[in-house]
Amino acid sequence: QVQLVESGGGLVQAGGSLRLSCAASGRTFSSYAMGWFRQAPGKEREFVAAIRWSGGSTYYADSVKGRFTISRDKNTVYLQMNGLKPEDTAVYYCAVGRVLTGNPREYDYWGQGTQVTVSS
To answer: Phi and psi at residue 106, in whole multiples of 5°?
Structure first.
């Protein structure tokens, strides 16, 4: 059974930084992609960034390019978030999928989410 556990969320002022972690267990992930998504109250789940476990290819949403960096190490995926804005406020989820994509339907397993709040 795949388990994904996110951590690192919190409250930060605009312009600040946070690093989210997603610890994955339950199988070998070398042939998979890991993604970060977010969901703000009243809005649909939105793609943030993804990384192919093997090779490290990355893919970002335009809204976070140049500010967020996704990386992985062993069985943990990280999302370094710099230059945070109030509109980045959301619950952030990590997910495991079979292809490097921003389509949430292509991801099979999801974590429980971690809250990120950016104050102005």
So the answer is: -85, 0
Contact 34, 51 (CB under 8 A): yes
Position 66: which residue type?
A: G
Report pLDDT for 112: 96
Rounded distance between C-alpha atoms, residue 28 and residue 92, angstroms: 23
Nearest residue to 25 (alpha-carbon basis) of 6, 10, 46:
6
Share of the chain above pLDDT 70, in %: 100
Q: Is residue 18 packed enough to be buried (19+ CB in 10 Å), middle (13-18) or exposed (0-12)?
A: buried
pLDDT value at position 55? 85
70-88 mean pLDDT: 96
Please give the Cα distance from 38 to 115 (Å, whole number).
Answer: 9
Confidence of residue 30 (pLDDT cuts 50, 70, 90): confident
Burial 79-103 (b: 16+ CB within 10 A, else e): bebeebeeebbbbbbbbbbeebebe
